[in-house]
Amino acid sequence: MEDRRITLAKKSREACLNHPKFKAVFEKYTKEMGIEEEPQVSELWKSHGEKMAKIDAEEEEARRVADERKKKQEEDVRVAAEIEKKKKM
User: Fold this and answer.
1) Is 61 exposed, middle or buried (0-12, 13-18, 19+ CB in 10 A)?
2) pLDDT tens digit string along 21-55?
C-alpha cells in the first residue's frame, strides 16, 4: 500500500510540473520555489526507488523468459509440422 502511495505521489508531481497551465503560470518561478529538481524527501523515497527498480527488473526478466519459452514452443510446433509433412511425401 505504501509503495503505491509513493508511486502515485511521484507521478502526480510529474503530471503537475508538466501540465501546460503550470508551465504557463509558474515555470519561470520553479527555481525560486525550489522545485526544479526531484526532491529527496527521505530515505523512504530512496529505498522505494531501489525497490521499484528491482521489481521492474524481475518483471522484465519474467517477460523475457516467457517470450523465449513461447518462441521455443512455436519453433517446436513448426519443426513437428515440417517432419509430418515430409513423412506424407
Assistant:
1) exposed
2) 988 998 888 888 877 777 666 677 778 888 888 99
Q: Which three cell numbers stand for residue 83?
A: 517432419
For 5, 6, 27, 52, 58, the CA distances from 47, given in Å and listed in that order, are 14, 11, 29, 9, 17
46-56 exposure pattern, b = at least 16 Cβ within 10 A, e = fewer: eebeeeeeeee
Q: Which of 29-33, 64-68, 73-77, 78-82 has the lowest mean pLDDT?
A: 29-33
Name the DSSP class of 27.
G
Residue with cell 521499484: 52
Q: By C-alpha distance, which of 40, 39, 51 is closest to 2?
A: 51
> And the C-alpha cell for 30?
520553479
Cα gap 24→75, rounded to integer Å: 55
